[in-house]
Amino acid sequence: MSREEQRVKSNETNAQQFWKQQQPDTSAITAKFPGRVMKQNSIASTVAVQKNDSRSKTVEHRRNNSTSFELFTASCDDAWDSKLDDCVASDCVQHTVRRSSSASRCRTNGKEGKAKASVSLSSSPSSKQCELRTTSAKSSIVTSADCDPKLSKFKKLLFEDDVCDLNQLRSMAWAGIHAEVRPLAWKLLLGYLPVIRSKRQQTLERKRTEYQHLVLQYYNNRSTNDEMWRQIHIDIPRMQPLISIFQQEVVQKIFERILYIWSIRHPASGYVQGMNDLVTPFFVTYLSEFIPGHSLMDVESFAVSSLPDDTLRGVEADSFWSFSKLLDSIQDNYTFAQPGIQKLVNLLARVMKRADATLHEHLTRHGVQYLQFSFRWMNNLLIRELPLRCIVRLWDTYLAEGAVTTTSLPTPSSAPSNNSSSVQQKSSFISVSENSVWNMGNGTPFACSFHLFVCAAFLRFWSKTLLREKDFQGLMLLLQNLPTFHWGDTEIKLLVADAYQLKYTFTPNHLLS
Amino acid sequence: MSAKEDEYDYLFKVVLIGDSGVGKSNLLSRFTRNEFNLESKSTIGVEFATRSIQVDGKTIKAQIWDTAGQERYRAITSAYYRGAVGALLVYDIAKHLTYENVERWLRELRDHADNNIVIMLVGNKSDLRHLRAVPTDEAKAFAERNNLSFIETSALDSTNVEAAFQQILTEIYRIVSQKQIRNDGDGENSPDMKATLNINIPPTEPSDRKKPCCQ
User: Fold this and answer.
1) Disulfide-capable partner of B121 in A14, A148, A339, B143 (CB 3.0 to 4.6 Å)?
2) B138 is in which domain, residue-wise?
3) Number of helices and strands (H, E) in chain B?
4) End-of-domain residue from the set A329, A346, A371
5) Is the peptide bond between B202 and the residue preceding it cis, with omega within 30 degrees of 0?
6) Contact call for residues A137 and A148 (beta carbons, < 8 A)
7) Interface residue B196 vs chain A (CB under 8 A)
8) How far A214 CA lies from chain B's nearest CA (Å)?
């Protein structure tokens, strides 16, 4: 991978062209797939391509565009580098001046929905941050992470300040958190650990002990005939089959305990297939703290049993509590008939009707229902649709958004600076607080707003490709297997920028009409 | 998509149901893509795939919906039973519990599917001979009592997978073509019928290329 990465650095422009060149290809290949008997199986299935490196290379070769493909793949593989932030920095500065006017246009005029992504990107970080980033962009090439001002700022916030300013952390986290500081940043954003630095260790120890008690109380006394236990046991070995860490027995045991204990304590939903996926981002992130370089790529193949038991128990407990925080905010996705998901799917259709009417009509005309493809997007929070490294990056923004929605617009000036601790208590993963834009006036019965818009952005990202599909089966097969396996930080940045745009373009009134 | 792949004489919607982990998704991937994956991910909600086969010189396109096995998904997946003309009810021959639950799945179908849906009981994982927990004769007798067709398959070594789908699709085809003869002329469809995929019994969609002889 590093070889490819080096290559891409020399030719990023070419790599950026990849989509323009490849999108028609992808759709053509997928379109040929339906109905055929075992001919193009190797080409059409994303999974198949992912699974078999040599096979995927043949495919690329056939496309006669292997160089740009590899370059592109590599260019997306740097989710945890600071260099992309620096690239954005110049955009950021350019648009800072225009920001307020662009943002207000977006809000007042829904037709402005097509505004440039860079505008939305720049409208979230604070202007202070932009200045900082500019400095880093100008100051030659940043080679060491220690020289990176953004990382230094993260470190100061997290490790030096007596009380971490959560609003500042949020506004920085929105654009992505450095791998090195991500574990602690997530714990603070989730409200798992207190903002007061001196209290963190104590809290951590208390929560970890508490979890050990839960293990003794529930897991060690479980009945092996338990239906829930049986289901968890069936699902865990087939979780993320392409990532070796999840095939390790130690890891599977950890997941069994986390899921079983959560489920037994939440009988209204219990364990629902797909919940196992929701633990994975927390687990790999917290594990990365103990792996040299903190790279998620390394975590994915790390021999977990080489870590001391005590460390592993800590990672397990932290993953459990974080997973609990997440599920607390979206539990009605998993109760009987899954009302939360049904609501989200309906809202997605309404957003799309306005955000991309052509695509919406195309899907409707061919009989594709949103439930048929987006159910999984909601149930598994896109984890089945995107590579894990992308999900981790996406969740940086989700965690930042979860609380940002407590203010009407996440501009630095409007974010209250004096209530960080109280906000922290409310901070939930992707829920919308009572004060949010969404609940103002008409009290839309709705949570998960940002995820909804990410899904909408994700769908319209594929608009052109989908419009080329001319029938139901072509559309469904593509929607079930969107080719994102080479995605990286760049795509996620575009995705969240577009989602941000959509979020502030649509008010609940739009969607209720 | 080329016109050739788009051509078919009949379009049948079939659902795959049964307990979690019995191999529904692998049966489907074996039939539609000739692929098998030992650690395939659990199905969330429903997944779709398709393949065309020939019966009596007619092209039959099967639109197959693979459903999640877990109880919690029942509310979502049962919506897909509507309009299905066939159901493969799958159990694992090495796990008796999955066979015991077949009755529950039959009730599900009675409650949510069309009355005349063709059901085939499928004992999957027949390669696990040494672990067999459900005797073939027992399952066969059960199927006969309940008017179901029956077959044992192995998605892993491909045994009978092709045969299972071929058999159920042929059975549906026979019923439908009989019906068509009786209701001669009833099957008039609007030209855009194919696009809307409205497939209730009689689920025939005469294509522009070849019309069934009775039309």
Assistant:
1) B143
2) 10-182
3) 8, 6
4) A329
5) yes
6) no
7) yes
8) 25
> Does the beta-carbon distance from B72 to A238 stay under 8 Å?
no
In this structure, which amino acid lies at residue B8? Y
Residue A466: which of A20, A23, A19 has the closest Cα?
A23
Strand-pair partners of A196: A163
Taking the C-alpha atoms of residue A475 and residue A483, their distance in angstroms, rounded to an integer, is: 13
- Measured torsion, CA atoms of residues A420, A423, A428, A433, in degrees rounded to the nearest 10: -140
DSSP letters, B168-207, are: HHHHHHHHHHHHHHHTTTTT---TTHHHHT--PSS-B---
d(CA B46, CA B77): 7
What ipTM was estimated for this complex? 0.84
Residues A404 and A322 in one domain: no
Q: Judge if A475 and A405 occupy the same domain.
A: yes
CATH number at residue A448: 1.10.472.80
- With respect to residue B24, please indicate whether it lies within any of the assigned structural domains: yes
Contact A45 B35 (CB under 8 A): yes
Question: Do A192 and A282 reside in the same domain of the chain?
Answer: yes
Which CATH number does the domain housing residue B20 bear? 3.40.50.300
Last residue of a domain, one of A329, A346, A377: A329
Structural domain including A180 reads 156-329
Question: Is B72–A235 a contact, with Cβ atoms under 8 angstroms apart?
Answer: no
User: Regarding beta strands B10-18 and B86-92, do their DSSP bridges make them parallel or antiparallel, or are they unpaired?
Assistant: parallel
Overall size of chain A counted in residues: 513
| 8 Å CB contact between A493 and A86 | no
Q: Is residue B209 situated within a structural domain? A: no
Residue numbers in A near B52 (CB within 8 A) = 35, 37
Residue at A145 is within a domain: no
Q: What is the mean pLDDT of each run of 10 residues along chain A (513 residues)?
A: 46 44 40 36 38 42 44 41 40 39 39 38 40 38 62 95 93 94 95 94 97 94 84 93 93 97 94 96 96 90 94 97 92 91 93 96 97 96 96 94 43 37 41 37 43 96 97 96 96 96 79 59
Kindly tell me the burial class for residue B54, based on how many C-beta atoms sit within 10 Å of its own C-beta (0-12, 13-18, 19 or more). Answer: exposed
Domain count, chain B: 1
pTM over 0.80: no
* Beta bridge partner(s), residue B17: B89
Binding-face residues of B in 10-39 toward A, CB within 8 A: 20-21, 33-35, 37, 39
Tell me, yes or no, whether A285 and A409 share the same domain.
no
Q: Measure CB to CB from residue B68 to each of A31, A241, A273 and give the nearest one.
A: A273
| Radius of gyration of chain A from its Cα atoms, rounded to whole angstroms | 22
Q: Which amino acid is at A348?
A: L
Residues A304, A183: Cα–Cα separation, whole Å: 17
Q: Is A375 in contact with B46 (Cβ distance < 8 A)?
A: yes
Residue carrying the six token digits 């496309």: A63
The winner for highest mean pLDDT among A264-268, A436-440, B132-136, B184-188 is B132-136
In a domain? residue A69: no
Is A287 within the bounds of a domain?
yes
User: Which of B8, B13, B15, B32 is the best substitution to test chain A (most A C-beta atoms within 10 A)?
Assistant: B32
Domain count of the fold of chain A: 2
Contacts of B37 in chain A (CB under 8 A): 47, 241
